[in-house]
User: Fold this.
Amino acid sequence: MHLYGSNPVLIIPSLVAVLQSLSTSLLFPSPPMSPTRNQLSDIGSFLLQTFALLLVTVTVGFLVLLGESGMTGKAVTEGKVSIAEWGRSVRKYFVRILGLALIYVGLLVGVFTVVGVITIMPVILSMVGQAAQGQPPPSESAIMQSFAPVAIVFAVIAAFVQAGFYLLLAPAVVDDAGIGGSVEKAIRVLRAKYKAFLAYASLVCGIILVSSAPILLFFFSGFDVNLKVAFLPGNLSVAVLVPSIVQTIFSPLFFLIAFLIYYDASRPPPVGQA
Assistant:
C-alpha cells in the first residue's frame, strides 16, 4: 500500500509495542514453586513484580494505540506523517481514545462471556457426564482437542471485534469526533461499507489465525507452545515470538485499511460524480 510504503514511521509504534512485549516475556518472574521459610515474602515479591510488569504493559500499549491512531489519521488525511505526530496524538486524543478503548474492552468481555458459556459449557458438561457414568477421565490431549474449536471461535470473534475497534477509532482522529460521535459515525460507515468491512475483517482474522498457529497446534495436537527460543534467555517462547513478529508487520496496515474505509465512505464524492 502506497501510504504504508511512503510513511515508514508508521511501523515505529508497533515496533515499540513488540519490543515491550518481548521484554515482558524475558523479565516475567517465575512463580515460587516450593515452600521456603520466606515463602510469603517470595509470593509477595512475585505478585509485586507481576503487577508492575502488567502496569507497564498496559501503559505502553495505550500510548502505542494513541500513536498508531494519530499517525495513521495524519497519513490518511494529509498523505505524510512524522514521528512528532505521536506526541501530539497523546495530548489531543487521550480522553476520547481511552473511552473508546473501554467500550472495546467491555464489548470483548461481554461477547466472550456469552460465547464462552455457549461453547465451553457443553464440553464441560460432557466431561462431567462421562465421569458420572464411571468412565475414565479423558487425557490431557483429548481435553485440548475438545477445546480446539472453541479456541478458533474465540480467535475469529477477537479478530472481527478488533477490526471494528480500528474503524471506531477513525472518526475520533479523522473528524475530531467525541466518543458518542465516533460510535455514531462508525456505525453509519459500517452500514454503508459493510462489504468492504467484511473483507477487511476477514483479512485481519486470517492473519491473526496464522500468527496464532503455535497456540492452535497446542489445542489440536499438543504442540508445545512454550517451546523456548534457545538463543534468548528468560521465558521467550514460540507462542510469544511468532505473534509479535506478525504484529510488527501488519498492525500499521490494519490501522491504515480501517481509516481508509472510513475516510472514503465519510467524504462526499467529487462534484462530477455526485
Summary: The CA atoms of residues 29 and 234 lie 9 Å apart. The mean pLDDT is 81. Residues 2-268 form one domain.
